[in-house]
Structures are given as structure tokens and as C-alpha cells.
Design goal:
Elements (H helix, E strand, L loop, with lengths): L8 H24 L5 H17 L17 H12 L6 H4 L6 H11 L2 H12 L5 E4 L16 E5 L2 E12 L6 E7 L10 E7 L5 E6 L16 E11 L4 E2 L5 H37 L1 E2 L2 E2 L4 H31 L5 H26 L1 H4 L5 H9 L8 H14 L13 H11 L1 H6 L5
Helix pairs in contact: 1-3, 3-7, 3-8, 5-6, 5-7, 7-8, 7-9, 8-9, 9-11, 9-12
Bound molecules: flavin-adenine dinucleotide (FAD).
């Protein structure tokens, strides 16, 4: 029977190297991240990217025929756990940053050979950035069947009109992957199609990077921005269409399931980093009657965090394993489970660590307040937690029949009567003791 939680020694060596590399080469970038330009960041990352390529750790999420390492989701999960400790910068050095990693998967799944050559190859080589443009301010991202952005047929091409926001990296991207309705009368999940739109196409108007909890002050054109974009009579040729007309949601689903679990994997790293800070602080912060580590509340937070992180890790890796074995569709419920469970774990662990640090945790002198702001969106991006809970509960409920007579299956008086009948011959033969 196969039931193995170990990591191959060869791969464990790679992970050990990654831990050291991320801590020594990437964590320092965080401290100057706000004061450097995109060009300076690119220059800092360039030698790091060269090194991960030489070590065969670049773009590990894709199969070898597409220029990746073909590691599969479990190994990727173990890698992302390390990269998640520095969630803004580490993935860039390993060529698996969102949204590029998911967009590469879209191009790999749905792109023609020409589209792959024009967009996927430079994306994988780290020569260009991409963005995924689906969410609109006017319609709920949780229900993309309500999308209003339209791509109307015009000759053999399309005219695109719409308003999007939270197109991550839109303001530094070379191309945008846009979801737009092509047939409003089709069945809900066949209305939309997906297009590759070069960012310099006339009519693409990027108005700003939206200030967020992550970056509260307006700034523009830096990695990690979330662009608001108007598409105004953007003329697209037939080569812009990805897959077939009406396949937009189908392709998006194939991207979203892996994209979702990759977030969950990175949250493990964020939680771990916050946890390590919490434990370290507990060991030396003197409070009344000892150090924080002597207090039961601190001990409870440490123990609860260990248990929750362990649960999230096992759930994530098990979902990843299922994806490797049976494909991403088979793991949809498992990924929904870890999406809302993992989002709560990362939130709670970061929150406890921040609380334990008091004013220091709240200050910009520690990474905790940033990790708190950054990970807050985990609870609603990639499908709000409420929606994932609903999906999981619906699937569970679908498999259950209500009892025909309205009596619960476990109703004790009913079962007791049945048990008395079942064992009557024994009960009669063996008299109860007086
Ligand atoms: C940092 C960040 C990066 C992002 N990057 C991208 C990107 O690159 N590309 C892109 O297209 N989008 C991106 N998004 C947008 C993201 O995908 C949406 O925010 C998400 O899909 C939720 O959509 P919404 O914000 O419109 O919220 P809504 O859909 O309006 O939902 C708001 C809330 O309503 C509740 N709710 C909604 N539906 C239900 C339901 N069925 N049952 C119960 N409660 C419900 C939930 O509490 C939910 O949080 C990003 C967002 C953030 C914050």
C-alpha cells in the first residue's frame, strides 16, 4: 500500500538550497522594495534568475516540452512553501510568479503554435510580463457569468469594449489576457471567450494602479500593481482569440484550479514566516512574571498555529497529489477546501504573530503588518471563501438522501427497538442477572 509522506533525498537537497537562497538573496530585497524602480528590481533579479535557471529550478510548473521542469504540483507545493516566505519577490526569481505562471498555463493549454511562439516562449524566458484581465468594477468577480466586457465580431476579427480592474501587473505587462463576452445569448458558461491583447494595441487605456491594502498609496508601473483598464474599440485580429469562441470559462477554469492551489502553497510560506517571528519573539520578550513564552496564551497560539499549519500543509499537498494523479478537475473540491481553510490559517497565524509583537508588529519595522495586509485578500480572491464553502457543502449534500420516513438514521429509540429484535434470541437465551 502506498502512503508515503517523505521527500526524495535529491529533491530535499534542492529544497535546502532554495531555503538558503531565498533567505540570503531574496529577503534583503524586501527591505528596499518600496524605494527601488522596476528597472532596478529587474537588474537585481537578473543574476538570481540566471542562477535558478542554471540549477534547473526555473518555471518548474510547466512540462519539459514547454520549457519547464515538469515537477508536478506536489514538488511545486514544496517549492512554493519556500517561495511564499517572500511572496512578492521570490517567485520572480524562479519564473513562477502570478499571474505569469497561470497565463503560461493558459497559453500552453489553448494557444496555437504561433501564439505559443509569440507569447509563451518569451514569457517562459522571463523576457516579458503578462496580466489576466477578468474582474470588472461593475460586476461581481464571484460570478463571472455576469461579465459585461464585449468582443463583437468585425470581419474576421473583433472589436473589444469594456472596463476591468485588478488586472495584476497590467501596468508593466507586455500583453493582457482578456475575458470578454462574445455571445450574450449563449448558455451562461459559453458566453465568453479569451483573447491575447498586446498592451500597446490602440484603445487599451490603463488609467491607474488601484491603491490597495497591499500598496495603500497610489503609484504606477511597478510589479505587483493592480491596474484599472478601459478597452475602447480595441480592434483585434483573429490571431487574438485563444481556443475557440465560447471557451473562455472552460480555459479560465483550467487556469484557476492550479492558480488557486499555488496561492495556497505560498500562504503556507507566509504563515511559516510569521510563525517563526512569533516563536522568536516569545523566547525573549520580558513581560510580567517571565517572558512571553511562559504565558499560556502564547503557548496556545504557538500550539494552535502548529496544528493549523500542519493541517493546511497536508491538505494542500494532498490536493496537489490528486492533481498530479488525476488532473485538476478531479481535485476541484479538494482545492476549494484548502482555499478557504488555508486563507483562514494564514490570516490567523499572521494575526497572532502581529498581536504577540504588539506595537512592533503593527509597525513598519517588522514584515508582519505587510504580510497581514497582503494576505487579507486570501479570503476573497480566486473565489470568495463563502462561494468555495457553498460549493463543497453542495457537493456533500448532493450525495445524501433524506430519510424516507423523516426519522434520523441515528435516532436511538428507533435503533434500540431494532437492536432488541435483532438480538432477541440471545437476550432470551441469556437471562439478565437478577
Ligand atoms: C490583490 C488582488 C489581486 C487580484 N488580481 C486579479 C487579476 O489579476 N485579474 C483579475 O481578473 N482579477 C483579479 N483580482 C480580483 C479578484 O479576482 C476578485 O476580487 C474576486 O474574484 C472577487 O470578486 P469581487 O471583488 O468583485 O467581489 P464580489 O464578487 O462582489 O464579492 C464580494 C463578497 O460578496 C460575498 N459573496 C459573493 N458571492 C457570494 C455567494 N455566492 N455566496 C455568499 N457570499 C458571496 C463574499 O463575501 C465576497 O467576498 C484581484 C483581487 C485582489 C484583491
Amino acid at each position: 500500500m502506498a502512503w508515503d509522506f517523505s521527500t526524495e533525498p535529491d529533491f530535499e537537497e534542492k529544497l535546502a538550497w532554495m531555503r538558503e537562497f531565498v533567505r540570503e538573496e531574496i529577503w534583503p530585497i524586501e527591505t528596499i522594495g518600496e524605494e527601488i524602480t522596476q528597472a532596478q528590481l529587474d537588474a537585481i533579479c537578473e543574476p538570481l534568475r540566471r542562477e535558478t535557471k542554471e540549477r534547473g529550478l526555473w518555471a518548474a510548473h510547466l512540462p519539459p516540452e514547454l520549457g519547464g521542469q515538469g515537477f508536478g504540483q506536489v514538488k511545486l507545493g514544496l517549492m512554493h512553501e519556500i517561495l511564499g516566505t517572500s511572496p512578492l519577490y521570490a517567485p520572480i526569481a524562479f519564473g513562477c510568479q502570478a499571474p505569469d505562471s497561470g497565463n503560461a498555463e493558459i497559453l500552453a493549454i489553448a494557444g496555437t503554435p504561433e501564439q505559443k511562439q509569440r507569447w509563451l516562449e518569451p514569457l517562459l524566458a522571463g523576457e516579458v510580463f503578462s496580466a489576466f484581465s477578468m474582474t470588472e468594477p461593475e460586476t461581481p468577480g464571484s460570478d463571472p457569468t455576469q461579465l459585461q466586457t464585449r468582443a463583437v465580431r468585425d470581419g474576421d476579427g473583433y472589436i473589444l469594449n469594456g472596463h476591468k480592474w485588478f488586472t495584476s501587473n497590467g501596468s508593466i505587462a507586455d500583453f493582457l489576457i482578456v475575458l470578454a463576452v462574445t455571445d450574450p445569448d449563449a448558455r451562461a458558461h459559453q458566453r465568453a471567450s479569451m483573447f491575447v491583447v498586446p498592451v500597446d494595441t490602440p484603445g487599451v487605456r490603463i488609467v491607474r494602479d488601484v491603491p490597495t491594502m497591499e500598496h495603500p498609496y497610489e503609484r504606477y508601473g511597478v510589479f505587483g500593481g493592480h491596474a484599472e483598464i478601459y478597452y475602447e474599440n480595441v480592434r483585434l485580429g483573429p490571431e487574438a482569440l485563444l481556443g475557440n469562441e465560447g471557451e473562455g470559462f472552460l480555459i479560465a477554469q483550467q487556469r484557476l484550479v492550479p492558480g488557486r492551489i499555488h496561492h495556497c502553497m505560498r500562504w503556507l510560506g507566509i504563515a511559516r514566516r510569521a510563525f517563526d517571528m512569533m516563536v522568536e519573539r516569545a523566547t525573549y520578550r520580558p513581560v510580567k512574571g517571565g517572558v512571553l513564552a511562559d504565558k499560556q496564551t502564547a503557548q496556545t497560539w504557538i500550539a494552535d498555529s502548529v496544528a493549523e499549519m500542519q493541517a493546511a500543509r497536508l491538505m494542500t499537498l494532498q490536493a496537489a497529489w490528486k492533481m498530479d494523479q488525476f488532473g485538476s478537475s478531479a481535485a476541484r473540491d479538494d482545492v476549494s477546501l484548502i482555499k478557504f481553510f488555508g486563507a483562514k490559517v494564514v490570516h490567523d497565524v499572521v494575526d497572532r504573530s502581529l498581536q504577540l509583537h504588539g506595537a512592533l508588529g503593527y509597525s513598519g519595522d517588522m514584515p508582519l503588518e505587510f504580510l497581514y495586509r497582503l494576505s487579507r485578500h486570501a479570503r476573497f480572491v480566486d473565489g470568495a471563501d463563502e462561494v468555495h464553502r457553498e460549493t463543497v457543502a453542495r457537493h456533500v449534500l448532493r450525495a445524501i438522501e433524506p430519510p424516507a420516513d423523516g426519522v434520523p438514521t441515528n435516532h436511538i429509540p428507533t435503533r434500540r427497538e431494532a437492536a432488541r429484535r435483532k438480538f432477541a434470541h440471545i437476550l432470551e437465551a441469556v437471562p439478565a442477572e437478577a
